[in-house]
Design goal:
The chain contains two helices and 22 strands. It is mostly beta strands and 288 residues long. The chain is globular, with a radius of gyration of 20 Å.
Amino acid sequence: MSTVHFTHVDLRRGKPTLAWHAFDVALRNDADRTRWVVIPQRADAVSEGGVRGVDVFELPAGDGVPIGAPTAYLWRFEGTGGFWAIRLPATATIELHSLELKAWWDKEPAEAAFEVVFADEVLVGGEPAARWLGHEDVGAASGSFQARVEPLRLKTLHWRRNDKGESGVAEKPVELVGASRVRVKVPLSAHFPAEPIRAAADLARLVGRRVRVDGTARRAKLGTVVVGDGFSVYCGGLSDSLLGARFTVEGTLERSDEAMTSPGPEPSAGTEGSIFLLRGWRVVEPTR
């Protein structure tokens, strides 16, 4: 039986009462064929209607995925019935990190409840979605991938929009063939603000804590670093699209003594030669 598991990991707010809730999602396809996994874009309501277009994103690999390994493709169907979707090969097991679902709750509940669908085919206007788009985009059979599309500024790999009619872009109906539905209930974690790192002197004090770094992404010999005011921290797997950009990232701060034996950036001043890195990081405010 195919399975899905959601864990609430973060929250960012827009205009009242809009919020984007980020979830880590573990997916397993136990079938002997490729299947679609359809996930709603809203955590607070059922989106009914058709779709007017689709964007496909190639997701950056997370920790532990070798360079050159197959990637994952996330489909974002837009319209009144919009949803996220991913095509899983037979027997695939993958993890999506920080997939965002919108919600407009006046008062946030203790848990979110919504439906995830496994389907043999997604039909758009009676045509298989891959044929309608013109690309197959079946993803990896295993691995861990960053799925926070907007904050990571992921580039669109493929896209399509319906033709315009007299009243604008027309929506096409969606049909899920061979669907099996899973009702998901996810506790919504209390959101505690991360502690900001403002200077190198804060690094040693905050090891093991959830922190927030405002800085610029730079390439270093050991990977990508976020450079702040007089200090830097490694962020493994950070998207190349953020290099040179200034933004805010959150994660758990760790000290890496092993990294000191390899060439890399100069250690931050006042840290006794240590090199620091963020685990479980996520971009929360791409800015300028």
